Amino acid sequence: MAHAARVERSSDRWLSLILSVLLHGALFAAVAYTWWTWKNDRPQPTLAIEASVVDAKSVPGIGKLPPQPEAPPPPAPPQPAPESQPQVEPEGPPQPTPEELARREQEQKQQAEREAQARQAEQAKQLELDRQREEQERQQEQALAEEKAAQEKRAAEERKAALEKAEAERKAAEAKKRAEEQRLAQEQKAEQQANAEREADLQRSLSQEIRQDQLRNSGAVASWVSLITARITDNWDKPPSVRSGLVCVLDVTQAPGGAVTNVRIGSCNGDEAVRESIQTAVYKASPLPPPPDPSLFQRELVITFRPN
To answer: Model-level pTM?
Structure first.
C-alpha cells in the first residue's frame, strides 16, 4: 500500500508540471492572439478627395452615346509604410505592458505553486491517513494475533488442567480402590483373626467347663466350699439366741485372691442377732481359702451355713 502511494505521488508531480507548462503556453497564446487581433482590427486611414455631383443630361453628348460597360472600381491605394501612417488612437482594451505580463506570469506561477503545494499537502495528508490506516490495521492484526495466541494459550492450559484433573481423579480413584481393597483385606484378616480367637476362646472355655465339670464331679468344689464354711465357722461368735438346727444361705462376693467384698444373708431360721453374727464371721474369714484349681474360682459363691 505504501508503494502504491509513492507511485501516485510521482505521477501527480509529473502531471502538475505538464499542466503548469500547458497553462503557461495557453496564457501566452491568448495574449499573443489578443494583441494580433487588436492590431489587425484597427481602422485604416483614408484619403480626402473633393468632388461635385453633375447631372448627366446637362452634359452635351453624354446622352447620345451608347451605353458603356461599367468600369471596374479602381484598385485600393497601397498602404503607406508605418512611418508615414498617421497616429490613430487604438480602439478596444489597451495592450498589457511587459511589466503587467510579467506580473500576471508571476501571479500565475505563484498560483500554480500554491496549487502544487496544496496538492502536495493533500497528498501528504492522504499519505499520513494511509499510514495511520496501515498502522491501525497493523495494530488490529497484532491485537487479533495476540488475542488468538491468548485464546490458544488458555485453551492449551484448560486442556492441560483437564488432563491433570482427569489424571488426578484417576490416581485418586486407584488409591481409593487400593485403600478399599486393603481395608477389606484387613477387615477380612481381622475377622479371620477374631474368628480364630473366638474359636480358641470357645475351645478354652469348653475345655475349662469340661475340666470344671470334671473337678466338680470329683468333689473338688465341695471340698473347697467345705474349707470356706469351716473358716467362717472358726470366726463365728455364736450368740446366746442360737437354736439347734440353724440353717442360713449366704451370698458371698469375693475378689481374686479371696478378699470378701460383700455378704448378703438369704433365707435363715435365726434371729437378727444370729444373722449379724454370721455376716461378721464371713468378713473375719476374709481372705477365703483359694480353690484347689484356679479354674474353679468363682466371684459369686452361694454357701449353705449349717454349724454343728
So the answer is: 0.34
